[in-house]
Amino acid sequence: MTKNSPHKISAKQVAIGYLSRRDYAEVELRIKLQGKHYAQDEIDSAIADCLERGWLNDHRYALLIVRNSIAKGLGELRLQAELRNKGVSEAIINQVFDECDVDWFEHAKDVALRKFGISDADTLKEKAKRYRFMEYRGFDSDQISYALNISDDE
Q1: What is the band of 151 on the pLDDT scale with cuts at 50, 70, 90?
Q2: Is residue 4 part of a domain?
Q3: Can you give the residue range of the structural domain that contains 136?
Q4: What CATH number did the domain enclosing 127 receive?
């Protein structure tokens, strides 16, 4: 804490408070603490202590985000982008996706079935709408084609 800082609560206590409510990525927690205007060395110390005690763990955080997002019907590309935006390292993202036993093609098909039912898209406009929805959810073109039963000649 700096001399001019009005904080009575240490950065470590604030970090523990945040982590007691939900998991955070290290970068995300660091930004939260910086927003509270703690000195950088105090933030570093609080983060190091949380890491050492296992309260802060990017791998666990990424796994939780992936599991929850799969349940919400999001695809691999969107999940990877969200994890990158949260500050999770590329190595951890790759490790988490290697550990996840998800067939992304079948997942895309399940999401499409939940959203659109078993009816086929009648018009080109409807096909484009469905394609955009799946793309927004984070599925690649091969997964979308598989899920929507789109062949190469269409």
Answers
A1: low
A2: no
A3: 104-147
A4: 1.10.10.10
Q: How many domains are there within the chain?
A: 3
- Using DSSP's 3-state secondary structure scheme, residue 12 falls into helix
Q: What is the average pLDDT score of the chain?
A: 90
pLDDT bin (cut points 50, 70, 90) of residue 133 is very high
Provide the residue type at 104 as one letter.
W
Q: What percentage of the chain has pLDDT greater than the value 70?
A: 93
In a domain, 153, yes or no: no
Please report whether residue 73 resides in a domain.
yes
b/e burial code for range 25-52 (CB count within 10 A of at least 16 → b): bbebbbebbeeeebbeebbebbbeebee
